[in-house]
Design goal:
The structure is a homodimer.
Chain A lengths: L7 E4 L2 E4 L1 H20 L3 E2 L6 E2 H6 L2 H4 L6 E3 L3 H8 L18 E2 L5 H7 L9 E10 L13 E11 L1 H21 L4 E6 L9 H6 L5 E6 L3 E8 L3 H5 L11 E8 H11 L4 H12 L1
Parallel strand pairs in A: 3-7
Antiparallel strand pairs in A: 1-2, 4-6, 5-6, 7-8, 8-12, 9-10, 10-11, 11-12
Helix pairs in contact in A: 1-9, 1-10
């Protein structure tokens, strides 16, 4: 099935969504927005870049430096020397860049924890946000493995029980919605890519599931529920009323991957996809 | 006036919008969405990074290489050597990065022209899109001068008359909307930062206005109407039915700058801002 450009086209891991693709994501976002309302989650639009310093604090460069996409301007001393008559450039040589103090996000919920750094909670906090995320991969595949993609999240920061209840709640809601869309999906226990496989944390997650994925077509995780224990609470000094590190969990939706699954399931027919979403929302 | 975090906070040219700030932008976007509907503009969600090669083709690195924000992963040969035990990093040394083949957009409408490269038009095309744009500046000021910001555009690609009529149409609509919001704004003729001041093109734009800005508070352009003549049509080989290069124009809205203006005008009172927007939309 070749999708029409009104749905999407993809080049080098970057997607352009046409009017039908945009309309489909709007309806999907309406469903998630209603869920956000049900749990009183507040919408934040976070800084679109994350500090290297903050990412380092949560062991990002220790665990997957290869996924990072760093950002930097051209170094000031290179501007005059090399760019006054710059024509037909294909790339900017790394030696001409300034050091990178920021990176593009690779997960939206990190921004929540960075933003809450040093906060002492009165009660559990529910936040929703969508961010352009980036993962530098060896190869990209259509909409299912992109360099840049949109991740919508519903995040809970609170006590251990609250953040686990958040996941149980959405595990059911998301499955029901997928059933209404007639999207066949398997729920699988996954290893959290956040934790190094060889570390004590990775061993720990084999004891109880920290990540479950909703997998379409055998290999494409279109949503996931993630329990981080008190990892981010500890790293970002977010504390519970008793002064202990807060727990966090998130429900994550890869928006372009939903578009992939819906396009595949409904044979690239935008009207059928929109109809299915409207039916499932009704 | 110190804004409340429910509206926004800013650090190093990057803004985080809280629930009130997000709600205000949603209402503003609803207004622009209605305008898009009136002219039959189709919504696109473009690739969030632009190729250095394409930017070079439109003379970007010739005219303002200093504004660019390039992106690159850590070079593969540096990963094992330097990041296996990476702790407490504050920046990634430019020498560890791969060459940058992509940049973050500094204007949303470039994506429209890159996407339409090589197209021959049957009739004028109207597109709307919003993109995270980035401009690397020497200094940043609140929401009015950000490194990263959201630019919403209404773009026309067609004949010279059509693209100029598009601007006349929106010059009036935008002014009327600002009056309904009781936002005092001056319309000023500006030089298009796209064209080098010393170039023949820059001289040309002194003959007839190519850019008018809607300026709040004496210095903050919150919207602009821009006539590019056939510059992008020529560079991106977009042609009219007669084979000549197409003309382009765009109406651009700096979303965070609107939030700045509204916050200033209504003294940081989110309820008054939301009320004013609802009134102006009614």
């Amino acid at each position: 099935m070749t999708p029409r450009p009104s749905l999407f086209k993809v080049s080098n891991g970057l997607a352009t969504l046409g009017p039908d693709g945009a309309a489909i994501l709007r309806l999907l976002e309406r469903r998630i927005g209603l869920w956000a309302g049900e749990i009183g989650a507040q919408e934040f639009i976070y800084a679109p870049l994350q500090r290297v310093e903050n990412l380092s604090r949560i062991d990002y460069f220790l665990n997957f430096p290869h996924l990072g996409t760093l950002v930097a301007p051209i170094a000031r001393d290179q501007l005059k020397a090399n760019y006054g008559n710059a024509r037909e450039l294909h790339s900017i040589c790394c030696g001409h860049l300034a050091d990178a103090e920021y990176a593009l996000p690779s997960a939206a919920c990190y921004s929540v924890y960075f933003d809450m750094e040093g906060t002492r909670l009165d009660k559990a906090v529910y936040v929703t946000t969508v961010q352009r995320c980036y993962r530098n991969e060896e190869a990209y595949t259509g909409l299912s493995r992109l360099w840049g993609f949109q991740m919508r999240e519903l995040v809970c920061v609170g006590g251990s029980e609250e953040v686990q209840a958040h996941l149980r709640n959405f595990r059911g809601k998301v499955q029901e919605f997928m059933a209404r869309l007639d999207l066949p999906v398997e729920v699988t226990v996954a290893s959290d890519p956040f934790f190094d496989r060889s570390s004590a944390r990775a061993a720990m997650q084999q004891v109880f599931p920290v990540k479950e994925e909703f997998v379409y077509g055998g290999s494409v995780a279109i949503a996931s529920v993630n329990f981080h224990r008190n990892f981010f609470g500890e790293k970002c000094r977010i504390t519970l009323p008793d002064g202990q590190p807060a727990f966090t969990s998130c429900v994550a939706f890869g928006l372009e991957r939903w578009l992939h699954a819906l396009t595949d399931r409904y044979e690239g027919d935008a009207q059928r996809i929109l109809g299915a979403l409207e039916g499932a929302l009704a």
